[in-house]
C-alpha cells in the first residue's frame, strides 16, 4: 500500500481505505477462484494495482468519462482506475464468468459505485465509450479491430478517444501499423521499481 501512496499521495480517506482493502479481498478470493498467479499474489500492489494506475499517468479522466476494460480478469486495470477516478464510469468485461465474479465481489466489498462488470466477449459488447483500456489481453491489431465499433465520437478529455493498453516486452512489430498515430510510453518513466523496466503503455486514437 505504501507504493500506491508514494505515487498517489493525494488520495481521499475513502480512496485510501478502498486501496487498502484490496489485498485481503484478493487473497481471499484468489484461494477460491485463481485470477492471479499464486506466486504473484504477494506482489498485488506493485504488479497489478500500481501497474494498472500507469494509465492514470498518461491521462486524467474527466468526470463523466466512460471507459471499457476489455479482458479485465479479476478487475485490472478497471478496479484501481475506478477507485482513482470516482466520477468516471467503468464497464469491465471478460469472457470467463468466474473472473467476473471475483471482480464483482471485490468491487461490492469496497463500495465502488462507478463500475459495472459483465460476463461478455468484446465481440458482443455494443455500447460506445470514450476509451477502451486493457492489460496484455491480445495483440494490438486484433484488439483494435474488435473495439473500433465501441469508441464514441464525442470528446471530453485531453487526448482524443481511443485505446490505452498496458503491454510488456518488444512492441515494435505490434505498433508498426499504427506508428503514425500511436504513442508509446515507458511505464518506468513514471514508476522506478525494477518490475516496470520492460513495461509499456500504448495509446492509439480511434
Describe the structure in your own words:
The chain has one domain (2-205): Vaccinia Virus protein VP39 (Rossmann fold, 3-Layer(aba) Sandwich). It has helices at 2-7, 13-32, 44-58, 78-84, 97-109, 140-147, 172-175; strands at 66-70, 89-94, 115-119, 131-135, 162-168, 183-186, 199-205. The chain is of the alpha/beta class and 206 residues long. α3 (44-58) crosses α4 (78-84). Strands 3-2-1-4-5-7-6 form a seven-stranded mixed β-sheet, sandwiched between helices. The protein is globular and about 45 Å long. The longest helix has 20 residues, at 13-32. 40% of the residues are buried. The model has no long low-confidence stretch (mean pLDDT 96). The chain has seven helices and seven strands.
What is the compact description of this entry?
By secondary structure, the chain is of the alpha/beta class.
Please give the structural blueprint.
Blueprint (H helix, E strand, L loop, with lengths): L1 H6 L5 H20 L11 H15 L7 E5 L7 H7 L4 E6 L2 H13 L5 E5 L11 E5 L4 H8 L14 E7 L3 H4 L7 E4 L12 E7 L1
Parallel strand pairs: 1-2, 1-4, 2-3, 4-5
Antiparallel strand pairs: 5-7, 6-7
Descriptors for this entry?
Rossmann fold; 206 residues; globular; seven-stranded mixed β-sheet; alpha/beta
* Uncertain stretches of 5 or more adjacent residues: none
In percent, how helical is the residue content? 25-40%
Number of helical stretches of at least 4 residues = 7
Taking the sheet with the most strands, its summary is:
7 strands, mixed
What is the count of β-strands?
7
Structural class assignment: alpha/beta
> What Rg is obtained from the alpha carbons, in whole angstroms?
16 Å
The order of strands across the largest sheet is 3-2-1-4-5-7-6
Net shape: globular
CATH homologous superfamily heading: Vaccinia Virus protein VP39
Could you say how many structural domains there are in total?
Answer: 1
* CATH class (first level) name: Alpha Beta
Distance between the termini: 35 Å
The fraction of residues in strands falls at 15-25%
Overall mean pLDDT score?
96
Give the H and E element order.
HHHEHEHEEHEHEE
CATH topology: Rossmann fold
The CATH architecture assignment turns out to be: 3-Layer(aba) Sandwich
Amino acid at each position: 500500500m505504501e507504493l500506491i501512496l508514494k505515487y498517489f499521495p493525494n488520495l481521499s480517506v475513502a480512496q485510501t481505505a478502498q486501496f487498502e482493502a484490496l489485498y485481503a479481498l484478493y487473497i481471499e478470493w484468489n484461494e477460491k477462484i485463481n485470477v492471479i498467479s499464486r506466486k504473484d499474489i504477494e506482489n498485488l500492489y506493485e504488479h497489478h494495482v500500481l501497474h494498472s494506475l500507469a494509465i492514470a499517468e498518461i491521462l486524467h479522466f474527466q468526470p463523466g468519462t466512460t471507459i471499457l476494460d476489455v479482458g479485465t480478469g479479476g478487475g485490472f486495470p478497471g478496479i484501481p482506475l475506478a477507485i482513482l477516478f470516482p466520477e468516471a464510469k467503468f464497464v469491465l468485461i471478460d469472457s470467463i464468468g468466474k473472473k467476473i465474479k471475483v471482480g464483482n465481489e471485490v468491487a461490492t466489498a469496497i463500495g465502488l459505485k462507478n463500475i459495472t462488470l459483465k460476463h461478455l466477449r468484446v465481440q458482443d459488447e455494443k455500447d460506445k465509450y470514450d476509451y477502451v483500456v486493457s492489460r496484455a489481453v491480445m495483440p494490438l491489431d486484433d484488439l483494435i479491430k474488435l473495439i473500433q465499433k465501441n469508441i464514441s465520437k464525442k470528446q471530453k478529455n485531453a487526448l482524443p478517444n481511443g485505446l490505452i493498453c498496458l503491454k510488456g516486452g518488444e512492441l515494435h512489430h505490434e505498433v508498426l501499423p499504427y506508428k503514425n498515430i500511436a504513442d508509446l510510453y515507458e511505464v518506468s518513466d513514471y514508476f522506478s521499481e525494477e518490475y516496470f523496466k520492460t513495461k509499456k503503455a500504448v495509446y492509439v486514437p480511434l
